[in-house]
Amino acid sequence: MRFNTFSKPLSFLLLFLSTQTALSYKVAQAQTPVSPATTTKSVCPAQLGKSVDAAINRSVFSRARWGILVQALSSGQTLYSRDAQKFFTPASNAKLLTTAAALQQLGANFRIRTSVYQNANGVLRVVGRGDPSLNDTQLQALAKQLKQKGITQIKQLIADDSYIQGDIVNPTWQWEDVQSDYGAPVNSFILNQNVFGLKLVPQAVGKISQLVWTDANEAKQWRTINQSITVAQNQPSNINVTRDLSGGVLRIQGQVAANSEPYLVNLPVVDPDYYFLRRFRTALATEKISLGQTLVAAGGTNLQELAAVQSPPLSELLIETNHNSNNLYAEALLRALAFKQPRVPNKSTADLGLETLKATLTQLGVNSANYVLVDGSGLSRRDLVTPEAFVQTLRGIARTPVASVYRTSLPVAGKSGTLSSRFRGTPAEGIVQAKTGTLTGAISLSGYVNSPKYEQLVFSIIVNQSEQPASVIRQAMDEIVVLLAQLQRC
User: Fold this and answer.
1) Of 28, 289, 334, 378, which sits with the fewest C-beta atoms within 10 Å of its C-beta?
2) pLDDT digit string, tens, across residues 335-349
3) What does the buried/exposed string (b/e) look like for 362-371 if buried means 16 or more CB atoms within 10 Å of the residue's CB?
């Protein structure tokens, strides 16, 4: 067993295992439905400033920072601006930059390949390249391909994790994030989004809830202390999970309501390489292929490809990234940006990806002084982006041949993704394509308005440092977007 000290620093793994949170709360993706006023009216460009100011200058927002920029898509005429050149924590709006760069650099048909190679003396080498969509079904396909090649026994299987180098989780992410499913680790091997699950099944009131693992292999990796109890059926269900510093103990506390559905908890895997090998062993066994020794090693000679699976095209990966605000997909795409770049000693794949992202956005007309990124998903509180940077990105990608692919990846108001429950019954429904973003104290929304009575618009709205509930902030944001949807020439 080899520990890659560059990609898995022990100190960070200890941090990764030491924290506690209520795992059902998904900070990066949670979206609360809001319903702004549905009254249809015409808004003249001259009236827009006063109307937007009325929405954001309320007393409840007296301590909040608002950054807004609204421009005509084609001409670039500014219709409204407030602190558009100042830095804000962007939350998941950062994915707009990552996906734009990935699409422009790699192309809509780019796929990520996972391969199994034949080496000498019956040794097989599986090479992971950071496919975020890889799942058990594809592992089974690899096993079937090997069986079709006449392989019934594998003496040794090497998992080559050298393709992606660096920390498996970003060291600037908060403790509550890195041990939740939305902060799962990213490296060369990503399987089932590097998450495993367990269920707490209610029993009689006052009794310990029954723990059921969705994967028996993962149950063997932990010593579990289940202290969750079953409470009366009219009580709320709530489960907390604590991992100790040794990495071997999982403590489950909380309550599950009687007669309720099982309470599902998703946890990020600790070591993606060996999680992959455990699941691959199971897939091989299904095909009656015996597997001997497994180990993780970097590099080596790949003599002959025996089996391979590919991800869906990048156009589909973008939809998952932006529609569902998938952090793991965004981080994988950031690293994919480094695929065609020369390797640099002691520089992580993510850092190389960030350099490529910056160069690509500059080609699209985005001022590099308008953003500072340390990850690809926006989960880091150290990311800083101006509303102007988002507008420049949205306008820049709109001038490229892949513009329609990019637009398709964005949620549609009242119809899909993280906007499926917003703007319903308003003039914005169906004509706004935009990316949401949510972190504690940071809410964002940036995208396009296909106004029926005005030219197409591009906008970015970011709110930081507000103590108000996210739903209150989104209500005001949505009122602004509804105004944009009602613009007409006057």
Assistant:
1) 289
2) 999 987 777 778 999
3) eebebeeebb
pLDDT tens digits, one per residue of 212-251? 998 888 888 889 999 999 999 989 999 988 776 566 888 9
Query: What is the CA 188 to chain-centroid distance, rounded?
Result: 16
What's the CA gap between 204 and 138, in Å, rounded? 40
CA distance 29 to 325: 6
CATH for the 45-108+314-485 domain, from 3.90.79.10, 3.40.710.10, 2.40.30.130, 2.60.40.10: 3.40.710.10
* Domains of the chain, residue spans: 45-108+314-485, 113-167+272-310, 177-268
- Confirm whether 45-108+314-485 and 113-167+272-310 share one CATH topology: no
CATH architecture of the region 113-167+272-310: 3-Layer(bba) Sandwich (3.50)
Task: Give whole-number Cα distances, 424 to 56, 109, 413, 419, 482, in Å.
Answer: 21, 33, 7, 9, 11
| 413 token code pair | 């108001």
Q: What is the pTM of this model?
A: 0.89
Q: Cβ distance 156 to 125 under 8 Å?
A: no
